[in-house]
Amino acid sequence: MDNGMENMLDMYLFETNSLLEQLDEVLLEAEKAGTFTTDDVNEIFRIMHTIKGSSAMMEFSSLMTIAHRIEDLFYFIRENTIDSIDEKHKKELFDLMFFSTDMLRAEVEKVENNEPLSSNVDSFVEKVNSFLNKINNKSEEAPAAEASTASENGESSSSAPAAELPKDGSGAFLKIIFDEGCGMENLRAFMVVTAVKDIYENLTFYPPDVETNPETAAVIIEKGFLLGFDTKETLEKAVNIIKNSGNVQSYEVLMPPAAAKTFEKPEAAAEKKEEQPKPEAASPKAAAASAAQHNAAANAMHTGTNKQSLISVNLSKLDKLMALMGELVITESMVTSSPELQGLKLDSFTKSARQLRKLTDELQDTVMSIRMIPVAGAFQKMNRIVRDMGKSLNKDVRLTIIGEDTEVDKTIVDNIADPIMHMVRNSMDHGIEENAEDRVSAGKNPQGEIILSAEHTGSEVVITIQDDGQGVDPAKVLEKARRNGVLTKPESEYTQKEVLALLMAPGFSTNEQVTEYSGRGVGMDVVKKNIEKIGGVVTISSELGKGMCTTMKIPLTMAIVDGMEVSVGKSIFTIPITNIRQSFKISSEEVIYDAQGQEIVKRMDHFYPIIRVHSLYNIDTEITNMEDGILVWVEGGEKSYCLFVDELLGEQQVVVKPLPTYLNAYNIKNSGIAGCTILGDGNISIILDIANLHHSASSYGY
Amino acid sequence: MTDEFNEEMDIETVKALNVEIKEDTKKFLTFLSDGLTFAVEAGYVSEIITNYTITILPHVPSFIKGIINLRGQIIPIIDIRERMHKPMLENTDSSCIIVLDINSVLIGIFVDTVSHVVDVYESSISAMPPNSSQELVKGMMSLSKEMVILFLDCELLIQEGY
User: Fold this and answer.
1) What ipTM is given for this predicted complex?
2) Size of interface A-B (CB pairs under 8 A)
3) Domain B2-159 class, CATH top level
4) C-alpha A338, offset from chain centre
5) With contacts defined as CB-CB under 8 Å, which chain A residues touch B55?
6) What average pLDDT is seen over chain A?
7) Predicted model pTM
8) Range(s) of the domain holding residue A270
9) How far is CA A599 from CA A395, A417, A567, A607, in A?
């Protein structure tokens, strides 16, 4: 059924994306610390290596090249330890790394969208090369100086080399001849140098200016490219590398006649010499190496166990499983509440039915938990946004993440990523003060803070995005709202809460200027819509000068809800249990009427409007008398009111089914209907959307 | 059930109308609605159901009778009479729902009664008169002296939902 290649591609994308995410995390952590730890370097090296390998397998050459270059870069860093790079270069390295992850991501996106990949990544390769060169030279300088003094001490006996060989004290030379007509010999030579330098830093080579001077290509073609070594060991290692490099036609070991003897003999001395000048450098390297080994082993163990206990499954299969689960729940209640069983005394049937119920419940929980993933993925991305925006807007902001392990349904995680990003951008752009001085004078920490948190509260997950910036100025909001014509009543009548709700009105953006990040006027209303789409609610609270807090309350899963079945005439409605506060009967005397004749009931010292479902939905029913029916006190989306229904039928777990798409054109969602469900007897019950129902009632002049 | 039904009707049609089955004909299912004979392409017909419970939906145009549960699938039901602005008919024994699968959108149409399957040369379908106000019909054909078939435009039927 599945196409093999498609599957591979899916796997590749999944793997690469998670690796890139991991990489981002490592980079952000490292940048915070200002340097890479050995673990970080190893991790990045490993990630790049994997991406390179799998990209090569999938034949995505641009991805492979980028990953390859970074791998090279980190190979160098790993070999030389991060301490060999000075502060200035480190900064450059971070920028380069962020740039390269962006590039990788862009390429992966192209793969996802089936677009052609960039064929030219030379500019990037150039960038890495030049950086590599920079840090290479840097770390070269010191040891080179040491080496030259060392060679004076240790190898004073070496005599003048043969005429064609340069005189620099190297014990042996390697002459490389490149393939005829391969072009850019100087750059190829330089690549060899870079490769060899990884194992031998004191390398000398001729012509010395291969990297910068293209004319050397001619010299290399004619005379070959010379590499100078002073120990036999390194020479041998280099030979191995060169053997494996591309375009090398042949190589030849040349020794200055006089040096030949000394080269063989003072091996021990040479080795000593190697250790002598830089014991500090050597020991961390050894430590790093052992750490690396240790780490690799740990990693291997880690991935080993991972492979056994984790499998990745196509989401559509999970959806299918979920749908089947839903059908099973329905069928189960169909069987156990079959009308043919009514009035029969079936002890063992009841027992088995109860057992079946228990099992389906358990199965359902398990199926749900499969779809649950931590919100960490969506949260971690924000680190990067805060960093990038902080840099470009020149604001110093710290992002604090709380409760990233909170698990929610996969579809919900996918749907909250954009709203969260939007709110974080908003906070960065408009929330946090332009200048640190403004913050200091307001008595705040010069560093801004954005807190992103997630927590479970029963059947909901609450996500808050909080900043300690300047907050929302109600006066400005009102002014803007007036200009945009969003106001529906005199300004003075707006409460703080209502003012904040204006922020989420379509086409409202308080920022005067459209910036790169926000202020296009399609902001908060989109956030609100997205969250409402998954059954959630957004609220904003803010205090001028103290910051702003956006709270998103989202149901954990949308597929199965606990509902209360109520009947109105012949229709059956389901009210989600989470929305119900209480249900009670009242006498006609308790009903209070307002000027418009709206029925109101007093409950716990508060007054609540009564909405008669039968008259709202034009349903014929015999029960119109307040005393005959029952009131269900519901609460949803800031609204609290009572629904008048005929009778309560009982509580049931129902599987939410969306209404046919055909009906979308008739705006059925706005009549307070969230969807429908199939009851045990095959009938359809309509699930009410409590928050929307109130809105609908008021718009239908109720 | 559909297949049986179609087959049965085929034979009847051939006998009754003496229409010969030719290769380049198309099968159409005809049904009655307020005295008019309509036809839908048999390819769109997924099944005909007579036993159903319609759940009404609030705040929708009156021609949407509601939704039904067809083996776990929720299908909207349109009353063809009301859709054509004809008087509503109380449910009778012969009234039934034709479930159409139009480009994988399932929709049920509520009709007075299903008559039979006819084979029609597509070339014999004539276009509607230009000033006709008849909705949702893309062509017509006279079958016999008294009988005119109106061909329902199924694509249009679902398009308006979007």
Assistant:
1) 0.75
2) 78
3) mainly beta
4) 48
5) 571, 676, 683-686
6) 74
7) 0.47
8) 155-277
9) 54, 42, 20, 10
